[in-house]
Structures are given as structure tokens and as C-alpha cells.
């Protein structure tokens, strides 16, 4: 038991301890705030590597997690980015900007976690995304498959941006360790290098490009005129400019001339600007257009692809390639082959990973349909900087699939492509799915390419070939066949979604009625026969001509001709009489061009009267019972 004095000592001791704890916690809190402020300052300066080191030591909240994930993301450390974004989304998902969703999806793709990436992407896009299916579809329709080989460049510092320079290549590299260190990734600034490519696709005699071109800032992505006397290249500007809340140095495109074996007359192109970047220039075959990437005002996304027309060393205003190429995200690294086909890198179009390589053919002076080059060249990480030597179907591209930008050589071989037509079959009026419908794929000459019976989901799927004309037909009993024609093309359309809407006979024709007995009847005026006769009278022939026209209109319709008698005479006599009348009706239809295989005749005698009057039938009731009925069988 504690006495009064001891208890007072006890209180004083704990009070002192509490004060010490408060001071200790306050100092930690103050240190955390100071460290967070410094980390944020580094983050704003895009010094992501240094910022990440500090964020890693701080208590995690929304701001810290988002910035740390972004630090990893912007340096392609996708495994770490995924882990941090997972924590961020588990606690703050509902308050995150869509751009964070985008980076999270890209990080997940970077580690090939397509299940989670598709789930997140479907949520923020508002429609289903299925990347594994997308990849499988690409395998069927890409024009080429790529055989890949990593290029030995003699360095492990990071290389990309190849261009052809006579028998050599010029490429971009981080290998100059004497350059200043770039805060973004703690690597040297970029320079241009020249090298010879050996037969086994490795680089030999690697030397720095001209000292007049390389400086202490970034230079990259050179392109040369066909006579090799003029070059264009990217260079980071020499001053930082305040843009909104950020300061940065814009990337600009420069022009240089080769005079007496020296690159000189280096000038900034007139459409470059301190307020936005222009980069990744590439010339077309005849040097009349210069394509590049830019975030200039009027861009659709963060970077768009533009071109300028060149004439007598003057340049048109930049022309945006439009929304078929450019998205709200990045389109960069354009390349134009000898056929004016555009290749470019994008993370805005549906893809396999982060930056994927796409192509678009020039049609009617416009680039329209784009096509992902597929999984033999694209991965979950960045794949970009594609160049091609058309004459040998070989070239280079860059990728950070192994964690560092590296050059890869490729040879491409033609892919035996198949396109897909998919869809479902529905009732034209009710829009209900129609299981059991036969769907037939027809070649242009009408021959059957494939056919199937749809299941409970009403869906069909056929493989087709590019550049062909097909028809697709839906058919089921008691419905009018529907045929749709379509063309496959070269522009990378993965699926042709054709919904077949077929209409039932009783919806299409007033004289076709489904009755309570479940049968579908063709309701015509009654056909009258003389007593004990079965020949077709003139009035009856007019009625049957309506039936002839209906059967010709629907060449797959099959019917049963049912003849009935009144109750006079014996059962046996009436059965024979009705069979003769039914056969007589059938013969009339055949004589008017209807194939006999579509017709059935049956006599019912007096067994199925419309009015069962027994022995008290009037002449009018006998006439009603003495009739022909037409039931649709198919």
C-alpha cells in the first residue's frame, strides 16, 4: 500500500516522465514535418531518387504514399511502385485523382499483374478491360512477329534513340560519367554517340558524336537528311522557366549542318519554345516533313505527335496528327518508314504495358487506324524508340524491360493473321437472346466458311482473314434469315461486332398468327371445294396465289397443308376426300414454282371440326368445317 508521501513522489515521477515523452514525441513530430517539407521540395524539383529516400523513412499518410509511389513510378521501379500504390489504394482509394489510378494501373502492368490492373482500369474507365484477351487477339492480327536480340553496346548506363547514319548508327546514351548528374534519376545527362553495327547486331567503335552537338545538358534523338548533311536533334534548354507551379527547362529541337566534316550552324527551330517541349524529331524519306513530339498549347494530352512541312529551310506551323493518334496521355518517339507508315510509342492507347509501340498507315493523307505491334515486341514495361530498315525488315528499338533502358535489335517476319467476327443473335423486336440459332459465315462467292449453333448466351465467334469480303447469316425456325456483309481490313480491327437481329414470321406478316394451340398459321380466305370434289376452283386459286408469293418471299419457309371435311359421309370416305384435297392444293403450289420438299399435305377428314355440331349441323357450319389450313413447320 502506498502512503501519502510515497504517492506524491509517484505522481511527480510520472509527471516528469510524461513531460519527457511529450518533448520526445514533439521533437519526432517536428523532425517528421521538417523531413516531409524537404522531401516535397525535392519531389517538386523532380529529384525523385533523393525524395524517395526521405519518404521511405516517414510515417505513411496519403501524401507520403502517393509521392513515394510516384517517385518509384517515374524511375520505372514498378515493383516498388505497385507495393506503395497498393497501400495507398487500400486506405485512400475514394479520394484519389484519376491520374493516380492511371499510374497504379501502369505499375501493375509493369509487373504483369493484369488481373488487378484490369480490375482497376475497368473501374476508372467505366468499361471492361481484359488485357490477356487483348494480347491473344493481337497475336492473330498483327502483320509481323518480331525476333528480338539485346544489343551489346559496351555500357550498362542506359541507351535508346537509334537513327541510321550511313553505314553507322547514332544513338542516345547515359554513359558519359563526366557529365553533370541529373536529379531525376541520379544519372549523367544524355549525349549522342556514333557506332558501327556488327553482323551479330552488337555495337563496335562506339565514339561520342560531335563536341559541337554534345553539351553538358541533354542531347538525344538525332535524325539526318538522306544526304547526311543536315541533322535535327533534341536538346534541353539552358534555362528553367516557371510553368504554373513548376519550374523546368524545356526540350527543344535544333538543326545543324555538316560543313567541311564539322557540324556547325546549330540553330533552334522556330516552333520550339521555352514554355513547352519539342522533342524526338524524325524526317520522312524525302525530307519534306519533320515529325516530333510536343506538349505545346493545343495538345490533346501530355505529349502529342506533330509534324511540320519543310520547304527551302522554312517550316510550316506545327500540325497535330489528331485524336486517332494522340490521346490524353503520352505519344512520343515517332518514326516514318519509306511507305510513310507511322510508328510511335504511347501509353494512352489500349496496350500491353506502359509505353507500347504502335503503327498507323497513311490513308487518304491521314493517319487513322492504329495497331499495337503485339507481344513479340511489347512488354509490361516501356518499349519505345522504334526504327526500321525497310529493305531488310530489320531495325532497333529501346526497352526498360530489364529495369534499364537498353537497345534491342529485331528482325520481323510476316504473321499469318486471322481476324475475328463476334456478336450475338437477338429477336428484332423484343431484343431477347435467341439460343439455338444457326449462324453461318459465308465467303464472297456464297460458299460456307464456317457455321455454328449459338448456345444459351446467343453468342457466336468466327476467325476470318484480312482483306476479304464475308457475309454472316442468322437463321432459326419460324424466323426470317438475316444476312450482314462486312469487310476485313489491314488497320488492326480486332473484332467485328455484328449483332444479328432476326424477325419472326408472325411479327413480319399480318397473315401469320401464333394461336393458342402453339402452332403458327398462315391465315387465308377459306378454300372451298364442291361437294365430293377436290379440284382447285378459280376463287381458290386466287387465295393460293397469296400463299405462293409468301413462300417465294421466304424461301426457307416450310408448311403443312391440312385439309378438313364436314361430317357428312363416312369417316373413311371423308379421310380419303381430305387427303385428295390436300394433295390437290400441294400440286397447285408446286405447279407455281414451289419446291415440293418444302410442303407437306395431310388429310384429317372430319376428325377436327372447327364447330362440333354433331347431327345438328347447318349448311353454313358444314362449310366452316370444310376447309384447308396452313401451318408453318419452319
CATH secondary-structure class of the largest domain: Mainly Beta
Instruction: Give the end-to-end Cα distance, rounded to a whole number of Å.
Output: 102 Å
| Proportion in helices | 25-40%
- According to CATH, the homologous superfamily of the largest domain is TolB, C-terminal domain
Unreliable segments (pLDDT under 50, ≥5 consecutive)? 1-13, 20-30
Radius of gyration: 39 Å
Largest sheet features? 5 strands, antiparallel
Structural class: alpha+beta
Shape: elongated
What count of helical segments does DSSP give?
11
| Number of E-state strands | 39
| Proportion in β-strands | 25-35%
CATH topology-level fold name of the largest domain: Neuraminidase
Layout of SSEs?
Elements: H1 4-44, H2 48-55, H3 62-74, H4 78-92, H5 98-110, H6 114-125, H7 131-141, E1 144-150, E2 159-165, E3 168-173, E4 181-182, E5 187-188, E6 191-197, E7 203-208, E8 219-224, E9 230-236, E10 241-243, E11 246-248, E12 251-259, E13 262-268, E14 278-283, E15 289-294, E16 304-311, E17 314-315, E18 319-320, E19 331-336, E20 342-346, E21 356-363, E22 366-372, E23 383-389, E24 394-399, E25 406-414, E26 419-427, E27 438-442, E28 448-453, E29 459-464, E30 469-475, E31 479-480, E32 482-487, E33 495-497, E34 500-504, H8 505-508, E35 512-514, E36 520-522, H9 538-553, E37 559-564, H10 571-591, E38 599-603, H11 619-625, E39 627-632
Parallel strand pairs: 26-33, 26-34, 37-38
Antiparallel strand pairs: 1-25, 2-3, 3-6, 4-5, 6-7, 8-9, 9-12, 10-11, 12-13, 14-15, 15-16, 16-17, 16-18, 19-20, 20-21, 21-22, 23-24, 24-25, 26-29, 27-28, 27-30, 30-32, 31-34, 35-36, 36-39, 37-39
Amino acid at each position: 500500500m502506498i502512503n501519502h508521501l510515497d504517492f506524491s513522489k509517484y505522481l511527480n515521477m510520472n509527471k516528469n516522465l510524461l513531460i519527457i515523452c511529450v518533448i520526445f514525441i514533439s521533437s519526432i513530430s517536428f523532425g517528421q514535418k521538417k523531413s516531409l517539407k524537404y522531401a516535397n521540395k525535392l519531389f517538386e524539383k523532380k529529384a525523385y531518387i533523393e525524395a524517395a529516400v526521405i519518404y521511405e523513412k516517414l510515417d505513411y499518410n496519403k501524401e507520403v504514399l502517393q509521392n513515394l509511389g510516384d517517385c518509384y513510378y517515374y524511375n520505372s521501379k514498378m515493383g516498388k511502385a505497385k507495393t506503395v500504390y497498393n497501400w495507398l489504394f487500400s486506405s485512400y482509394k475514394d479520394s484519389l485523382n484519376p491520374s493516380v489510378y492511371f499510374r497504379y494501373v501502369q505499375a501493375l502492368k509493369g509487373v504483369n499483374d493484369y488481373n488487378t490492373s484490369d480490375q482497376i482500369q475497368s473501374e476508372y474507365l467505366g468499361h471492361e478491360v481484359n488485357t490477356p484477351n487483348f494480347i491473344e487477339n493481337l497475336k492473330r492480327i498483327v502483320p509481323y512477329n518480331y525476333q528480338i536480340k539485346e544489343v551489346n553496346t559496351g555500357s550498362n548506363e542506359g541507351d535508346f534513340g537509334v537513327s541510321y547514319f550511313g553505314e553507322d548508327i547514332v544513338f542516345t546514351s547515359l554513359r558519359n560519367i563526366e557529365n553533370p548528374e541529373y536529379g531525376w534519376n541520379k544519372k549523367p545527362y544524355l549525349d549522342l554517340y556514333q557506332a558501327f553495327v556488327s553482323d551479330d547486331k552488337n555495337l563496335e567503335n562506339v565514339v561520342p558524336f560531335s563536341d559541337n552537338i554534345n553539351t553538358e545538358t541533354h542531347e538525344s534523338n538525332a535524325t539526318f537528311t538522306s544526304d547526311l548533311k543536315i541533322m535535327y536533334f533534341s536538346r534541353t534548354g539552358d534555362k528553367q522557366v516557371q510553368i504554373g507551379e513548376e519550374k523546368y527547362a524545356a526540350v527543344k529541337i535544333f538543326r545543324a549542318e555538316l560543313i567541311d566534316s564539322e557540324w556547325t550552324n546549330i540553330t533552334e527551330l522556330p516552333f520550339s519554345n521555352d514554355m513547352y517541349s519539342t522533342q524526338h524529331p524524325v524526317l520522312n524519306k524525302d525530307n519534306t516533313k519533320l515529325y516530333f513530339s510536343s506538349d505545346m498549347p493545343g495538345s490533346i494530352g501530355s505529349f502529342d505527335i506533330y509534324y511540320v512541312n519543310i520547304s527551302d529551310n522554312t517550316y510550316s506551323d506545327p500540325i497535330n496528327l489528331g485524336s486517332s493518334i494522340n490521346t490524353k496521355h503520352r505519344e512520343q518517339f515517332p518514326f516514318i518508314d519509306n511507305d510513310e507508315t507511322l510508328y510511335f510509342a504511347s501509353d494512352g492507347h489500349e496496350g500491353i504495358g506502359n509505353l507500347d509501340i504502335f503503327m498507323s498507315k497513311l490513308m487518304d493523307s491521314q493517319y487513322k487506324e492504329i495497331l499495337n505491334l503485339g507481344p513479340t515486341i511489347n512488354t509490361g514495361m516501356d518499349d519505345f524508340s522504334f526504327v526500321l530498315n525497310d529493305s531488310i525488315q530489320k531495325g532497333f528499338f529501346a526497352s526498360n524491360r530489364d529495369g534499364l533502358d537498353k537497345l534491342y535489335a529485331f528482325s520481323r517476319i510476316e504473321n499469318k493473321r486471322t481476324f475475328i467476327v463476334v456478336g450475338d443473335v437477338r429477336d428484332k423486336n423484343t431484343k431477347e437472346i435467341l439460343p439455338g440459332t444457326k449462324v453461318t459465315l459465308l465467303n464472297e462467292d456464297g460458299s460456307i466458311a464456317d457455321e455454328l449453333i449459338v448456345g444459351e448466351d446467343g453468342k457466336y465467334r468466327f476467325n476470318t482473314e484480312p482483306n476479304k469480303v464475308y457475309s454472316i447469316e442468322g437463321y432459326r425456325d419460324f424466323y426470317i434469315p438475316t444476312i450482314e456483309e462486312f469487310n476485313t481490313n489491314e488497320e488492326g480491327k480486332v473484332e467485328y461486332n455484328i449483332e444479328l437481329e432476326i424477325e419472326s414470321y408472325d411479327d413480319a406478316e399480318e397473315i401469320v398468327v401464333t394461336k393458342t394451340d402453339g402452332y403458327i398459321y398462315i391465315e387465308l380466305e377459306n378454300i372451298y371445294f364442291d361437294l365430293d370434289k377436290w379440284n382447285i376452283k378459280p376463287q381458290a386459286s386466287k387465295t393460293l396465289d397469296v400463299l405462293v408469293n409468301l413462300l417465294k418471299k421466304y424461301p426457307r419457309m416450310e408448311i403443312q397443308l391440312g385439309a378438313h371435311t364436314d361430317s357428312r359421309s363416312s369417316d373413311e370416305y371423308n379421310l380419303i376426300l381430305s387427303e385428295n384435297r390436300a394433295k390437290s392444293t400441294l400440286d397447285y403450289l408446286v405447279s407455281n414454282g414451289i419446291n415440293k420438299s418444302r410442303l407437306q399435305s395431310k388429310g384429317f377428314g372430319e376428325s377436327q371440326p372447327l364447330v362440333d355440331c354433331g347431327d345438328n349441323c347447318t349448311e353454313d357450319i358444314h362449310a366452316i368445317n370444310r376447309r384447308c389450313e396452313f401451318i408453318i413447320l419452319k
